[in-house]
Request: fold
Amino acid sequence: DTGVSQDPRHKITKRGQNVTFRCDPISEHNRLYWYRQTLGQGPEFLTYFQNEAQLEKSRLLSDRFSAERPKGSFSTLEIQRTEQGDSAMYLCASSLALPGSGEYFGPGTRLTVL
Amino acid sequence: AQRVTQPEKLLSVFKGAPVELKCNYSYSGSPELFWYVQYSRQRLQLLLRHISRESIKGFTADLNKGETSFHLKKPFAQEEDSAMYYCALKGQGAQKLVFGQGTRLTINP
Reply:
């Protein structure tokens, strides 16, 4: 296990198309997080799962966004009807459910909406 | 509201000089504070967490609740310290990280 992996690493799409990203966390980590990062900003929280349960969603996560973690392992983030404002780096992270546990980040998926 | 402020977007120091990256936070309870680092072409990685009181790669950070600060310090900068540094906060009982905007540190030879 070499850490959190994300696929694809880059995605270019046209406005209005749907896209789906995948995240594979570190195997023993039961928490999984999605963040979004735009140029010049720090990552912003989108949502997180503990095992298969989605426990928190940010207001940033509009109705066009949906995330799943069906078996408590990998997760997918889908964006429907993409807009140019969705262009960003989408980061996945995982952690143990222990106080003070830091999150381990994946390499990110860079989305460009034309 | 939870907020993390890193007042310096860019910081440039010479090799061997001391480094201090500032981080101030706004939170009414007892937060957990972290420093993350992103080297060129690498993923974001955890550098320090205040709960561990550790020194990593010569960096230390002390949580000052009175000043609501968590500044990152290193007495002698090295060229390999050049990177983007993010301070982050996790509220009591919360799971999400709230990040600052980041400081790009450049160590000049």
